[in-house]
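A further point concerns the way the authors explain their paired sequence and structure data. Since the whole study asks how a given chain folds, the encoding of that fold should be made plain. A single example would do more here than another paragraph of explanation. An entry of this sort, consisting of the sequence and the corresponding backbone structure tokens, reads as follows:

_____
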Amino acid sequence: MPFTSLGLSENILKAIREQGYTEPTPVQKQAVPLILEGSDVVIGSQTGTGKTAGFTWPLLQRLSKAPRDGRSVRALILTPTRELAAQVGESVQTYGKYMDLKSTIIFGGVNINPQIKHLRAGVDIVIATPGRLLDHVGQRTVDLSRVEFLVLDEADRMLDMGFIHDIRKLLALLPKQRQTLLFSATFSEEIKALARGFMKAPKTVEVTRENTAVEAITQVVYPVDNKNKTALLTEMISSGNWTQVLVFTRTKHGANKLTDKLSLAGITASAIHGNKSQSARTKALKDFKEGAVRVLVATDIAARGLDIDQLPHVVNFELPQVPEDYVHRIGRTGRAGNSGAAISLVCIDEHKLLRDIERLIKNAIPQVIMPGYAPDPSIKAEPIINGRRGGGQSQGRPQSRSPSRAPARPHSSKDKPSNRSYPKR
């Protein structure tokens, strides 16, 4: 199916051609016509399927055909993370370059004054994280009373991060007559219930099976003692001449520690997590994309927001405690039809986490023991609590938590779920 069959305008098709795309992805084929016809749509689609462009194109087209007053926000796109907001904002700029539409990106961790300036100058599209947008609502620097289109991108992640109360506050400020789009990597009952609560007879598009890892990704587990993980990772990167590797740790401290050790081993590395300033995170990602840094070490806060073309390797230096996060992590590779490798370094403490992941993806992940790194069978497992192993934490069995209700740490005070109430204007 060519792009011309989707019903998109020539201005958008021209921008698509300039990006080198020749055929829409399955999610684009199904979602774009439904959005163009004005339906509320719930899309269950994993990362790397082209879903951002899939809602950007029809949104831009519908906005360009409707009257505007030059100042009111007409489309609101909510994202869970700063990185994803920046990614969506870049997509809006790329595909809207031949249209007379203005957009701005709003998130915490940066100076609010430039955002206020852009809003006061008038924008059609706002891409925002919930916490900082509510700050603007409280300061009356944004008017949401004429929003025609609402997009909730990666809604499951927003639920995980505890943004549901902020979302409900924002929904109360929007007109009831609007088109609403909800995108989610997983298609859980919580997501379906959320959609029923504020959408009008939504049509459903489910492109991939629930919680299924991308088939183009080669997955492998390397059993190894925890104390030998860094040495094994260093050897794999060096001997394999890997030039671009995204590595995940469970904690911010662990990310910093691993980055330092890799640097000492002569492997250029940067860390990206919630304690890093926005400028530091932006620079780390830029250096990684441009090849100035070989390894980017990240916590799960970055699992959804990073968009890296043809990323060849993702390494789980530590398995996540929530099995769904494994799918989100490895979804950074094998995107848009490209192949990729997902490597997990698993110690004795993580065997239960591995079983939970395999149960989720309904597959056993092949295991390979690297010569010289066979695990010591005499080592006993220690509990993993709040991302850390044994010592320094409460003793006993790790506390279990429901993935759909487990709030990840928000990025900053400006992106935290808020308990403040705001008047409806």
Observations:
- The two ends are 45 Å apart (CA to CA).
